[in-house]
What we know:
This protein is mainly α. It is built from 16 helices and no strands. The chain has helices at about 5-35, 40-60, 60-95, 105-130, 135-165, 175-190, 200-205, 220-235, 235-245, 260-285, 285-310, 320-330, 330-345, 350-360, 370-395, 400-430. It has one domain: Up-down Bundle (Growth Hormone, Chain: A). Helices cover about 80% and strands about 0% of the residues.
Amino acid sequence: MRKISLKEMFLTVITLYLIVIFIRSANASFILLSTLNYNFTTVEQGLIQGSYSLTEALSGFASGLLYEYLGPRKSLLTASIMLTVSYGLSNLIYYENIDPYLLILPQILGGFSASLIIVSSIALLAEETIYISYRIRLFGVGGLEASNLLGYGLGFFVGGLLEVFAPQATKGFILTLIFSSLAFLMSILLREKVREELVYKKFYRERFFNVERRSMYLVPMWAGVSIILGVAFISPRIIQKIFHLQTGIYHPSFYHSSLGITLVIAVLLLSIAVLFGSFLSGYFGRERSLLIGSLSSIVAIPLIGVLISRPEIYVTRSFNDMLKLIFSDPLITFLVFSLILFGALAFMIPPTLLTLLAEFTDKTRVRGPSSGVYVTTLGIGIFIGNVLGGYIFDKEGILILSIVLSIIFAPLSLLTYFLLKYKADMGRRR
Length: 430
């Protein structure tokens, strides 16, 4: 097998990151534009967005098998074409004044295409980083997680700019279609960079249905993280409603500008946190990173609820006012800095989980089905978070929602930690 240069690996990985960024930008802009264009309730918004996530979940394993059959190039091209078609149909529904609840149908198609793209990206990234050290690999998969977040940030940011400076451009889902088309173009560029050796040979085909057993140990913690993500994905509607309740103003922003621009600040900070989490995970090691990350998440989630429920933060008129509030109110200061500390530690979880998945499949090199299990867990968790989060928020508010999320996450995350620790202890005894 021809030795692959670092330059070739770097080009492939960067192109993968761009594909993920654009598909997540498409989804983010859909979330924002559907919030602006339709007066859905939180539950209705959650159901429409949840259809995307549920389809992504149910098709995860099938996407893994399809990846093994088609290989990286054809898988990514096929998926990006389907994604572009799905958002084209969303535009048709809007401009032809068709029942908006039919947006569920193109969302289902988009969910399947997203499933295939994410499975292909995870599997290919694992192949590209197989011969490098654990710490560098952490940054590789951390970059994939950061790409997911940056994609949402880009979608919210561009959508927010249009909302402020060109509100007519937020009509329909043209922006979403542009992002999905860019993902397709990146898939074409990837064609010349992907190693032919990575397209599995016929002797691997008999092992298509092989799921690495150890990857199943990661499922509980994945599920907990995914449920939290599901709630985060309906955050535009949640922020909109909280702002309206606190101020009587329906237009949501901490400084009266744009929902999208407000959200992008948080997303960019989260992207940095993921990369910092990769660094910390390399320092603490696999098992301790998961334990510390789990305990920190259990604390950080309610802190978010307490902070967001404070009415003081909704009467600021500028970013400077927000900073003054943070440093002048002792309670707000404590909440913010506690959240920064525990949040940074919590972000050790995503890169550690994906690195473990890559390591567990290094021996067989059949990564599609195991990656499909990850995507299935991710999609189901996000769907549950979409629907359950919307329901609890509508009934009980943000503080109770954050406490419930912490209670759900605690046993799921700790179960994964103890399973991995038990397996590691058994291996040492042998």
